[in-house]
């Protein structure tokens, strides 16, 4: 039984199987389009939405060890209220995350150039550590992509409400806010609009934007990337407008104290925004649709990381200098609302439009990546065959794309951004850890295989990636860990109840 659980796929056969006509995807992407896909995923969710909760932390209505960062609990054995924010030291959080992502990105680049197949970390673990681990990471990626996009769509809705406010339009709050608000809801003057907890409502804009992008993705990968390329240029322009026109208004006293919650705040801030860097993972999910994946995928991954780190850091420095960091608590549109408080209406409109465009492109790429993971798992027999159906005209996994759309859109109408971002981060870090481990395993098992982009430094880079990811995981709350393990237990139940008996590789081994 154990040997069956850890059976691995042959890389050469895996790549040959992707050329079968009924499951072959269109190959139309170059490294520039891949970089734009990565930037499209990264820039938007972090800069425009969850950066607020990373800076200010999260305030809860009760004290519990379940909401204490795991590392803090293990060291101090004390309770804490919610999650401490990084404050102005969020810039250090971005540096920490960039370092961790840099190590992980090099590992992704090595595997993606060797195994240019849809599925990303799921596929890499299938050929290195076996079917059971592949299932676990695939199940984890489903959570990771879905919850990430739920958080971004909620942020998009908040910015759309800000745009309507700019034009003097005030829609009914019941249909533009999540049904669940753990911290309640207040206006910019501090007046309470909703008490903490559940209320009657549904975030319609968050649902609608996901479904519209799902339709675009079904139409074709080339059309989707062309749309994304335009949106990436526009949102980079909006970020530069914010930085250049707001920098002279920075009040240095807002940077003091620089680390209000010490290194614990820096660590938890980094843990919160880590999921936004999954953009380079999205690059690897599109490897099967590249002209020259061995060359273009590593370029796209590394270029994405460098460009996004520079932009993230610039925005973090400016926004924490514009307003007191505490004012960003529970804010799903922190950059735009900071400009509103400073009465910079012209800049606010430009940034608001850029932020919305940025989040649309982020949603587009995340939904693309999620559907490709489902597609790859179905092609291996671990999910029903319907998920690997390819549209006869558009050559896209249409059923997986629509299923991913509804799986994201409905919860996005119900939950708040802080809850969603927290749930996504641990999945992202776990995926990066297994990818780095996969590099080490494949180097031992197949040292002679050609590596078009070997990660430098021998074993140092994969080991550093594992260490930094585990460190950031320890900065997440115990609640996140419990939810993560519950999700994995559900996944294992599905695997042993359905997927293991229907695995394509298992049937081939038995035959």
Order of helices and strands: HHHHHHHEEEEHHHHHHHHHHHH
Low-confidence stretches: 60-68, 70-81
Query: Can you summarize the main beta sheet?
Result: 2 strands, antiparallel
Radius of gyration, in angstroms, nearest whole number: 22 Å
User: Which structural class fits the helix and strand makeup?
Assistant: mainly alpha
Strand content: under 5%
> What's the overall average pLDDT, rounded?
77
End-to-end distance: 16 Å
Strand order of the largest sheet: 1-4
Helix content: 55-70%
Q: How many β-strands, per DSSP?
A: 4
What is the tally of helical segments? 19
What overall geometry do the principal axes of the alpha carbons give? globular
């Amino acid at each position: 039984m154990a040997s069956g659980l850890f059976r691995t796929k042959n890389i050469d056969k895996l790549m040959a199987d992707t050329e079968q006509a009924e499951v072959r995807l269109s190959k139309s992407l170059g490294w520039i389009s891949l970089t734009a896909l990565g930037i499209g995923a990264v820039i938007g969710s972090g800069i425009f939405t969850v950066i607020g909760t990373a800076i200010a932390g999260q305030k809860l209505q009760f004290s519990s060890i379940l909401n204490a960062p795991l590392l803090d609990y293990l060291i101090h054995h004390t309770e804490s209220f919610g999650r401490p924010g990084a404050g102005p030291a969020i810039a250090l959080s971005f540096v920490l995350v960039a370092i961790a992502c840099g190590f992980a990105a090099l590992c992704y680049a090595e595997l993606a150039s060797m195994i240019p197949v849809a599925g990303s970390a799921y596929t890499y673990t299938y050929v290195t550590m076996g079917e059971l681990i592949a299932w676990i990471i695939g199940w984890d990626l489903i959570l990771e992509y879905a919850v990430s996009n739920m958080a971004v769509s909620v942020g998009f809705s908040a910015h759309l409400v800000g745009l309507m406010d700019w034009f003097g339009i005030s829609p009914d709050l019941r249909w533009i806010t999540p049904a669940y608000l753990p911290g309640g809801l207040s206006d910019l003057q501090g007046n309470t609009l909703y008490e903490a907890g559940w209320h009657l409502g549904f975030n319609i804009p968050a649902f609608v934007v996901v479904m519209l992008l799902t339709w675009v993705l079904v139409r074709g990968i080339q059309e989707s990337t062309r749309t994304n390329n335009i949106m990436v240029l526009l949102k980079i322009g909006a970020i530069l407008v914010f930085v250049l026109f707001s920098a002279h208004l920075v009040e240095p006293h807002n940077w003091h104290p620089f680390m209000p919650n010490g290194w614990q705040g820096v660590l938890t801030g980094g843990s919160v925004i880590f999921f936004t860097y999954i953009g380079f993972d999205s690059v690897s999910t599109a490897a099967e649709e590249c002209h020259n994946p061995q060359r273009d995928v590593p370029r796209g991954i590394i270029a994405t990381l460098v460009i996004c780190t520079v932009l993230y850091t610039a925005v973090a420095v400016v926004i924490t200098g514009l307003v007191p960091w505490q004012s960003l608590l529970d804010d799903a549109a922190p950059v735009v609302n900071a400009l509103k408080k400073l009465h910079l209406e012209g800049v606010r409109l430009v940034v608001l439009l850029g932020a919305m465009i940025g989040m649309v492109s982020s949603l587009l790429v995340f939904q693309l990546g999620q559907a490709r993971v489902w597609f790859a798992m179905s092609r291996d027999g671990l999910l029903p065959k319907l998920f690997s159906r390819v549209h006869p005209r558009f050559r896209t996994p249409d059923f997986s794309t629509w299923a991913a759309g509804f799986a994201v859109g409905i919860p996005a109408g119900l939950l708040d951004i802080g809850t969603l971002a927290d749930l996504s981060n641990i999945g992202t870090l776990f995926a990066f850890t297994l990818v780095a481990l996969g590099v080490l395993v494949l180097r031992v098992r197949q040292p002679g295989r050609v590596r078009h982009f070997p990660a430098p430094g021998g074993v140092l880079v994969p080991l550093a990636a594992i260490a930094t990811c585990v460190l950031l995981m320890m900065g997440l709350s115990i609640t996140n860990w419990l939810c993560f393990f519950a999700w994995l237990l559900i996944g294992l139940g599905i695997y042993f109840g359905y997927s293991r008996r229907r695995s394509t590789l298992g049937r081939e081994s038995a035959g």
